[in-house]
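ok so i was messing around last nite and threw this chain in just to see what happens. nothing serious, just curious
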Amino acid sequence: MNEAIETVDIAVVGAGPVGMTLALALTDGPWRVLLIDSRSPAAWAGDPRALALSHGTRQVLTGLDAWNDAAATPITTIHVSQRGGFGRTLIEASDYDIPALGYVMRYRELAGRLATRIDAASLLHDTSLVGLEVDAEMVRLRLGGANGERTLQARLLVHAEGTPGAASDVRVFDYRQHAVVAEVRPNAPPGGRAWERFTPDGPLALLPLGDDYSIVFTVPPGRAEHLQTLSDEDFLAALREQFGGRVDFVASGRRAAFPLALRVRRRLAGARQVWIGNAAQSLHPVSGQGFNLGLRDACELAAALFDHTDDPGATQLLDRYARRRWLDRSGSMAFTDGIVRVFSNDIPPLRAARGLGLLALDTLPALRHFVAKRMIWGARAWL
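result:
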């Protein structure tokens, strides 16, 4: 006898925040949705990362009853400057009649809140996708886990896990930079102010997180290795040097580093498959665009599915979704990539041009609002 094969409408591989947001957005739809995650339950509980969440992301998560207000630190002001050059600008939430430009939250706090909203029956833990076959009607998934292999059929497979790999359809640009991340304690509470400081090595961000700052220090690989070997005192001295006395620090937490590259999947949709979040694109962390872009992927895909409820894997539906995402994706990639390329150097003419650009942002409200709204709402701020 042939083994009975379980069938669902939509299988989502990856139960991180983007995958869970998609599943929640589809809750009231006519589909059976199954989340598949390679990790064990609550594997994110010890994750030390901090996420920069835009005000637009808060609006989405609030609408899904998945916003963790108690864990969110608001960003009310962003101070932007460059080391070794003139020019600076301030972006204020009060200019946009919103409570904050964005928020900082630990990954585990966001994932934990989303997990409380997910029906346990719609989630497979400790299960990996080990193979698949696609035909005109279904995607057949081979899943592996502690209890052996099983087969599942879905009318649509959503990839929401991992980063674009070394496939011919993936464009990769290595920034030759590493991000050193840590939490540091300033000598005075952040007061809602975030700092984006451009240095010859790369951007340095301070994001308020409670009474501390979550830092993203972008440097060449060799310097990243050196920074990790420093004592806490010497590491804090290196941070002070970058800020020229504007900010002081009194303690540092554990440091980690990871390489930075732009990885972009050119085609978001294939035969009964679609890629969202980091599985679709992995951006430089400057200006905190990557996660917010991935969340907008999930929301746009949910909207496209509700517009076409008959067959969630229909080619017309997936192609329409990919077209809708072009402006937001290309704009976010150009925005972050352009900032990194223009600001990560110490060429005198470019340093002067950067100073003039920062001065223009500070003195021309229309230009500053254009940039701020892009960070807050993505491409829909332009529409």
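not much to say yet. The chain has two domains: 6-66+108-168+261-339, 72-103+176-260.
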